[in-house]
What we know:
Number of strands: 24
Radius of gyration: 34 Å
CATH topology of the largest domain: Porin
CATH architecture of the largest domain: Beta Barrel
Number of domains: 3
CATH superfamily of the largest domain: membrane protein fhac: a member of the omp85/tpsb transporter family
Number of helices: 8
Largest sheet: 16 strands, antiparallel
Strand content: 35-45%
Distance between the termini: 41 Å
Structural class: mainly beta
Amino acid sequence: KNLIENASAEHGYFDGRWLDRSVDVILPDNTADVSLIYDTGTQYRFDEVVFFTIDPKTNQLTTDPDKLPVKRELLEQLLTVNMGEAYNLQAVRALSNDLIATRYFNMVNTEIVFPEREQIQNDQVSFEQSSSSRTEPAQVDESTLEPVIETVELTDGILMDISPIEFSASNLIQDKLNLVAAKARHLYDMPDDRVLAINHDDGVNRSILGRISDAVSAVARAILPDESENEVIDLPERTALANRKTPADVYQSKKVPLYVFVASDKPRDGQIGLGWGSDTGTRLVTKFEHNLINRDGYQAGAELRLSEDKKGVKLYATKPLSHPLNDQLRATLGYQQEVFGHSTNGFDLSTRTLEHEISRSIIQNGGWNRTYSLRYRLDKLKTQAPPETWQDLPVDFVNGKPSQEALLAGVAVHKTVADNLVNPMRGYRQRYSLEVGSSGLVSDANMAIARAGISGVYSFGDNAYGSNRAHQMTGGIQAGYIWSDNFNHVPYRLRFFAGGDQSIRGYAHDSLSPISDKGYLTGGQVLAVGTAEYNYEFMKDLRLAVFGDIGNAYDKGFTNDTKIGAGVGVRWASPVGQVRVDVATGVKEEGNPIKLHFFIGTPF
């Protein structure tokens, strides 16, 4: 019954009622006949969606479009409901979630005005239900009482009369509640920088309402030591929203309005994180974001990353286009220093990179998401290798400090299908990208860089923790190719490398590629990596895994060796994604060195 009633309400059948809900038990046969007949009534439809906020000058609620934190056009682009459509609770939830996801607002409250329940009941039954709010119980003449509405027979044959229960609240209780509400509302309106110094009295109020009132009073006295309690109680009430529709209006019109409150008085936030990764070592990440620069929805931020081999800072800004979430223009400017180079002769390469990118990202629900980009990259390279070896290095050095640059126009598409985006049991992901550059437009060489990848997860088998989760298979393929009439002039950091947490485990990050006759990594023109993994759930959300990775970053003729990594690991389905700890080794490598890999993210 509850499932039927809940489903009915979620789809706007608020006038629904039971015509029959009976159970006939046949004792000799130990069987039962269940009769459930439900009249859904008229389906309600969406009425207008009203956005409102608090006017900071008057401290009153307002629907004035000029007082909203963002322009109304942006809010309308986020609408998931249209006036006149059939009511659906999922659409209301989607609207609230999208408003929060924009990060424009520090407060979002979506209120649904439902039809008046008492009116619905009065139209469905032949009696009127009386109620009392703030009056004392009065003496009632029993001769004037309404007759009982139903007589039921209990299981032991006893007849019982059923009549409505009347509730009332005394003035004392109601005044106490009003006092608490007034004090709490006043505290909510106070500035955030008021210092609290609460003095606790020795006396203990045994009443629950009394304790709540005393606690609020203590806070109020700490913030407003010079104001009397009467002054606090007599604060002017905030004016209710004008022209707000009532439940009775909703019942008469069969249309449900939405009143959405938005506020953005704290649009900035900061983050700081300290972590460790097998590819990066110890790392520190700090981020500052301004989530709403102006009413056009502009956002900006800065990010600082520090690790053992990398140091970088990035500035970025976004502008909404046709949709605040699904269509954005983004500009980034970044600077990074990196120590790079794994070779038998100690390449000791370090880079200083300046990169600027402008991109447009378009998200399509259930379809292919697209990104169009234009990026400029300038690399300043430095090596500690002695000058007499420079001619053997994989890049051309002039006075030991060469510069490499590229201007690349790109397009990328990707699609993700999964039953759960954080910890999927079944799903797959595809991603493809192409970037092109010309020696006639800034780039050091004519080039086209293509990348492709597909990965997936499939769970099967039942266990004590659920169905289709005991066993899990994951796998993926990464591929890439660089077309160029002079590969030696392709910037070194745009070439392909393999190895690491998300490549071939058992090898260090970006430690695999073709090697020159002098022992230096040259970077690959072709990328081909495959991975396969099986894991078993031995405890809820904990899995043991065995895996193998194969491939490399190859030269054009595939003359360098294919590498194989294998190992075992543990998986934990955490609330923020899968936590993966692996121990792997390079198969057939001299000494079989062991590598520890740590990663947090989706399993594919």
